[in-house]
Amino acid sequence: MHSDITWEEPFCQEGSACFRLGTDTSGNAYIAVAGQEDTPLTDSREALRALILEIKAGKADHLL
Fold first, then answer.
1. pTM to 2 decimal places
2. Are 20 and 8 in contact (CB under 8 A)?
3. d(CA 32, CA 41)
C-alpha cells in the first residue's frame, strides 16, 4: 500500500460504490474504491482535477 497517501473521506452515492480521493507529497493524485486503497488509480493532481471538472460538466453522464 502507498503509505504516504492522504485519503479524503469516502464519497458515496446511495446504492453504489464509495470512492476515495487522495494525494501524496510528490504531487500525485489517487482515486480508489473505498476499502481497496491498496490498488488506486494514480495520475497528477492536474489530471484528477481535469477529470472531476469534466464529470461535473456532464461529459460522463452517458456512462451512468
1. 0.71
2. yes
3. 6
Task: Show me where the domains of the chain are located.
Answer: 6-63
Largest CA distance in the chain: 35
Grid cell in block for residue 35: 476499502
The per-residue pLDDT for range 22-40, each reduced to its tens digit, is: 999 998 999 999 999 999 9
Nearest-angstrom CA–CA distance, 18 and 62: 20
Report the distance separating Cα 43 and Cα 61, nearest Å: 22
Helices within 1-64 (DSSP H only):
45-56
22: which strand partners? 7, 30
Comparing 10 with 13, the larger pLDDT belongs to: 10
Phi/psi of residue 36, nearest 5 degrees: -125, 35
